[in-house]
Write a structure and sequence with these properties.
Distance between the termini: 18 Å
Shape: globular
Number of strands: 57
Radius of gyration: 28 Å
């Protein structure tokens, strides 16, 4: 196993190690990877003080939606600006007619009026950067405020001389003000992380704004004369905590959640001890804005098909009413587009679709949610068979896929005035999992994570059909005082050959996140650790979650474990291992490791997995995308997936989980990798030692240049890869040692910018192991080396835990560290 740690060195096969003969080279290659990070990090300019940029880009940046968002009542009381379909519109509240104000290919949103009603300021998003646009309505002239950093959320001063806005130019999202006459810019605030959603209070001498820092979000009031800055309202992780200021009173309206729902509240800033909730039931009400006279509040709310509608409610509360938009005036000619998706037999099929005009205009969907792929910048949605669109005239490209095995299909169409054009696309996979006896599963996603597009199992089924995925396991997860999706833990929804099985993610950030599959009732506590408030006995351990899983028949997996491609055992600080992962894997009867995830490195994960296998722990290789069905900016479900064989069992959630735990298949970010050895032994099976024939097939829609046969963590043969769309067939002979395992892996050595139909930057696949002699067998030398490395990892974890907990005693966790370390020391010395 020491060979894992010596980059670039070729070794001769050691005694009892695997040898390849005949068609297999006799050299043994080290498992060495580049030190680059394989996880997605950011698409927009990265802030210097913000950790996971996926949350920043999802929660702070604008969205593209077909229905109205971001209502902004005009000063005249007769009009209201809003965003829809990527443009800004001006709605006549009396007639219900909306006139398009902007018409470019970028996504415009978050409009705000100047006090005299002559200008609109808004955010323009080109898919890589955002800018502030100030538009003179009479002439159409635009002034642009833009840097290489993110700009957001304009707000005119009460006297109309300044424009307040947010910019990331400092490395944090801070508030600035722009003088409309001199064009000069001044910084107003300099707090860490996120400051946005600024609003002028009634007299124009104060600003209220949102500040997000770590797990906390608050409304702060900035006195522009004295410079004082105070907290008006503080909450924990609440991403739609946005506010507006009353035009005459020191009163605000804001949106805030109760579990999965979002309600509207008003609060008197002069007496903030109580808040008045305006909405009832289970609404998803966001982005409130006062009318010009302050007597009403406009906001948007999600409908059942996840489209927004414009609503209005009295400032004192009451029954909300919909504001009907009866006419949409594009200001240019339009035509119809009909899109049909079919399989190879001509039957209608659900697929993932992106429609873009030749100038870059992205089309938003009117029947379901519109998503943004943060890897490629494509907007996409799921069409069930066919759909019709009304679009401005022009030439469009329709792109469709269906899961990682269907090559990208495109159709170019021209939309003409008052005519109907049609795009018919046939989606035909290059490998059919079901025909080969496999089913597919994504074991780690989330339905709802405080995104814009509240989701249900029904919504998940639609996406699964569009990605050709059999099983999806959304994880309910904690949000401090909130329990998002807690009531549906254990719920299963079955529609034909699609299963949604709700699990739970226990998210102790410091100890390591773990998922529970097959769980019927949630584990509690959902979170703890030295970086959390102490809400009970701090002597907690993920080992308790593992015990809970073993006692209840659930299955625990450590999720998104290793961030970078490099071997974590080379530098525990640079590429850290979750705190209790090693001790839990050593002590647990059965446990999973998420080898494939949208945010981590399958190469770095492999290094950890190999060491656990080498000590005889049959840790299951699991896959999970860790996406959010309610997010606008997110990868597709099934970006990370397991393909497993059920061996004649019916398709059920239990059968799929059992097959994954037994390792009867492979994990992948796209390519299919079928491996057999001996007389048809598959992954999860047992093969005898000695000379064995092996064979494999590799199929993918992306280039794969690395194919390697691995025995006990050592590459024993390197094979030629494949080009996109090709099938690679391999065979050879190998002499297996007395114990351990053999597996095959394939991947792209370089990260790729566009991997559609998949959405992971590194195409990767790894078979589960075929065990030699018995499940959990081992090679003595490999086990000793692996045990030595794992002891070092536990030592690092213990030092980290003691430093973080300081004087707080954690005997439960420390006892598990010691117990696991003692077992490993015995292995290191060659004990049984």
């Amino acid at each position: 196993m020491r060979s894992l740690l010596s980059p670039g060195l070729n070794q001769k096969p050691a005694k009892h190690k695997a040898r390849t003969i005949a068609m297999v080279t006799t050299a043994v290659y080290m498992l060495t990877f580049s030190v680059a990070s394989a996880q997605w990090e950011n698409r927009y300019a990265k802030l210097k003080d913000f950790g996971h940029h996926v949350y920043l880009e999802q929660h702070e940046l604008p969205i593209l939606a077909h229905g109205p968002t971001d209502p902004a009542p005009a000063p005249d009381g007769k009009h209201l600006a809003f965003a829809a379909r990527g443009w800004i519109w001006n709605l006549n509240l009396d007639s219900g007619s909306a006139v398009r104000i902007s018409n470019g290919p970028e996504v415009d949103s978050r409009p705000r009026w100047s006090p005299d009603g002559k200008y609109l300021a808004f955010v323009r998003d080109n898919g890589r950067n955002t800018a502030i646009i100030i538009k003179e309505l009479a002439t159409g002239k635009e002034t642009k405020i833009d840097t290489e950093a993110i700009e957001l959320d304009p707000e005119f001063s009460a006297d109309g001389e300044w424009l307040y806005y947010t910019s990331g130019i400092s490395g944090s999202l801070n508030l600035l003000k722009y003088n409309l006459s001199s064009k000069s810019t001044e910084e107003i605030t300099d707090l860490p992380q996120v400051e946005r959603n600024s609003r002028s209070l009634a007299k124009g001498e104060e600003l209220i704004y949102l500040h997000g820092n770590g797990a906390y979000r608050s409304f702060r009031v900035k006195d522009l004369k004295t410079g004082t800055d105070t907290v008006a309202l503080a909450r924990t992780l609440v991403y739609h905590l946005t506010a507006d200021a009353h035009p005459k009173q020191r009163l605000i309206v804001y949106s805030a959640p109760i579990d999965n729902d979002y309600h509207l509240y008003t609060m008197d800033l002069n007496n903030p001890t109580a808040q008045h909730r305006l909405t009832n039931g289970n609404p998803f009400a966001i982005t409130p804005a006062f009318s010009a006279d302050g007597n009403h509040i406009f906001f948007v709310e999600l409908e059942k098909n996840r489209q927004f509608r414009l609503m209005r409610i009295s400032t004192y509360g009451g029954t909300p009413e919909e504001v009907i938009i009866s006419d949409w005036d594009l200001g240019e000619a339009s035509g119809e587009l009909k899109v049909n998706l079919n399989d190879s037999t001509g039957n209608p099929i659900t697929g993932r679709v992106s429609i873009v005009r030749e100038d870059g205009l992205a089309v938003a969907y009117h029947e379901d949610a519109t998503y943004f792929d943060p890897q490629t910048g494509r907007y996409y949605f799921y069409i069930q068979g066919e759909s019709e669109f009304n679009l401005p005239v022009g030439n469009y490209r329709v792109t469709a896929v269906r899961g990682p095995m269907t090559p990208v299909v495109e159709s170019l169409v021209s939309i003409r005035k008052n005519n109907t054009s049609e795009a018919s696309l046939t989606l035909n996979p290059i490998w059919k999992a079901s025909a080969k006896g496999y089913v597919s599963a994504d074991h780690h996603v989330h339905l709802n994570g405080d995104g814009h597009l509240r989701a249900t199992h029904k919504d998940a089924i639609r996406a699964m059909k569009g990605e050709d995925l059999n099983l999806l396991a959304p994880m309910s997860w904690n949000r401090w005082e909130r329990r998002i999706d807690e009531p549906i833990v254990g719920l299963e929804t079955v529609v034909d050959d699609r299963i949604v099985a709700q699990g739970q993610e226990v998210r102790s950030h410091f100890h390591g996140h773990v998922s529970l599959l097959g769980v019927e009732k949630p584990y509690s506590p959902w979170f703890w650790g030295p970086n959390n408030p102490t809400l009970g006995d701090p002597d907690r351990s993920n080992g308790e979650v593992l015990e809970f899983a073993q006692n209840t028949g659930a299955f625990l997996t450590y999720v998104h474990p290793i961030g970078g491609d490099s071997d974590p055992f080379d530098n525990f600080t640079k590429n850290p291992i979750p705190l209790e992962l090693v001790s839990d894997a050593v002590l647990g009867e059965r446990i999973g490791l998420e080898m494939v995830c949208a945010w981590t490195s399958p190469l770095g994960n492999s290094q950890l997995w190999y060491r656990l296998l080498n000590i005889g722990r049959p840790v299951a290789a699991m896959s999970g995308t860790d996406m959010w069905m309610d997010f606008h900016r997110t990868m597709a479900v099934g970006t990370g997936r397991n393909y497993v064989k059920l061996n004649g069992a019916d398709l059920t959630a239990d059968a799929v989980l059992e097959a994954a735990m037994a390792g009867r298949g492979f994990v992948t970010t796209g390519p299919a990798l079928i491996f057999q050895i001996g007389d048809g032994k598959d992954p999860g099976d047992v093969i005898s030692s000695g000379l064995q024939d092996w064979q494999a097939t590799l199929i993918g829609t992306n280039d794969i240049d690395v194919v390697e046969l691995v025995v006990n963590g050592v590459v024993v043969e390197k094979l030629k890869g494949i080009k996109a769309g090709e099938t690679g067939n391999y065979k050879g002979k190998v002499v297996l040692p007395e114990g351990g395992w053999i597996a095959l892996r394939a991947y792209a050595s370089e990260l790729q910018e566009d991997t559609w139909p998949t959405m992971h930057a590194r195409p990767f696949a790894h078979s589960s192991p075929v065990w030699i002699g018995a499940v959990g067998s081992f090679d003595e030398d490999a086990r000793s080396m692996a045990a030595s490395d794992l002891i070092k990892a536990i030592d690092v974890a213990e030092r980290k835990a003691r430093a973080a907990y300081k004087e707080i005693e954690t005997p439960l966790m420390m006892s598990r560290f010691n117990e696991a370390r003692n077992l490993l020391r015995n292995m290191e010395k060659g004990g049984k």
